[in-house]
Amino acid sequence: MAASKREFGVYTVMHLRDGIFEPSSDVVIHARGDAARQAVLDRLGPQLHLEVNCFLLRGPDGVALIDAGTGDHWGAALGQARAALKAAGVAPEQVARVLLTHLHGDHALGLLEGDAAWLPRAEILVPEADLRFFTDPAAREALPEAKRGAFGITERVLRAYEGRVRPIPNGPVAAFPGIEAIPLPGHTPGHTGYLLRGGTQDLLIWGDALHLFTEQAADPETGLAYDIDPALAIRTRQDMLARAAREGWMVAGAHVPGFGVLEAAGSGYRVLPA
Ligand SMILES: [Zn+2]
Q1: SS3 (DSSP) at 261
Q2: What does the pLDDT profile of the chain (274 residues) look like in tens digits?
Q3: Distance (Å) from CA 208 to ligand 1 centroid
Q4: How far is the CA of 172 from the centre of ligand 1 (A)?
Q5: Contact 169, 216 (CB under 8 A)
Q6: What separation in Å is there between the alpha carbon of 162 and the centre of ligand 1?
């Protein structure tokens, strides 16, 4: 699963590697209970090794990003997407748009330099259900403290990019011919994947629908505590994996390495390098 540059329709897509996030395996959850969870932990060990990626898109309307990494907000092991962007020959002022998959910190904090806009000209396109949820004080109150981080991030992004944040509905994304916003709710209410129609080969960038490529493809009932609605996240994973396998989509995500394709295997799916 080499993280390379690839063409999909009118777009060139490149991984921008932000770094590695290594939380304790305590964040693993499982819908079938403790024994199933323990079996996952036995395979994975005490610590998870999650990639953090965002994506550079070059297309007919200029340069765009899908997600923005952590910026300088999550410490020195992360935040390398900015250098990767520079190495690809792109200056911050050249980024015309950012498509966010959702409003969590490892996807949206990279938009901020302190509390200012890191991308001086970019328009920020946010799935409308996520923007609605993370600006709703009642929704914030209803969640445990550990799941409230994105509310403050949303406030800061809206302030830094005043007048340049646009909610986007599901379906074709205006200004991105051939890209479709696919609702993948559960991780957050408006969590969204982007499907790039490529003619011969389509690519689904699924955000955080899976964090553990092999493990969650094989068993979509494995989750991480970061999912706001774990039961809905499971249904979304199951439906999305089935559709991706059926349609032959290439897949990539914010926390999985490279590009893969999926093949049905037992009750789940196997990831094949693309
Ligand atoms: Zn994430």
Answers
A1: strand
A2: 445 789 999 999 999 999 999 999 999 999 999 999 999 999 999 999 999 999 999 999 899 999 999 998 888 889 999 999 999 999 999 999 999 999 999 999 999 999 999 999 999 999 999 999 999 999 999 999 989 999 999 999 999 999 999 999 999 999 899 999 999 999 999 999 999 998 889 999 999 999 999 999 999 999 999 999 999 999 999 999 999 999 999 999 999 999 999 999 999 999 998 8
A3: 5
A4: 23
A5: no
A6: 24
Give CA separation, 208 vs 15, 76, 149, 173, 177, in Å: 15, 22, 16, 19, 23
- Residue 17 is encoded by which pair of tokens? 């590697």
**What is the distance in A from the centroid of ligand 1 to the CA of 187?**
9
Q: Token match 């792109």: residue?
A: 90
Give the distance (Å) from ligand 1 centre to CA of residue 105: 7
Structure tokens of 22? 């290594």
- Taking the centre of ligand 1 as the mean of its atom positions, its distance from the CA of residue 242, in whole angstroms, is 22
Report CA(151)–ligand 1 centroid distance (Å): 15
Quickly list H helices, the chain: 34-44, 81-87, 105-108, 128-133, 137-142, 149-160, 213-218, 230-247
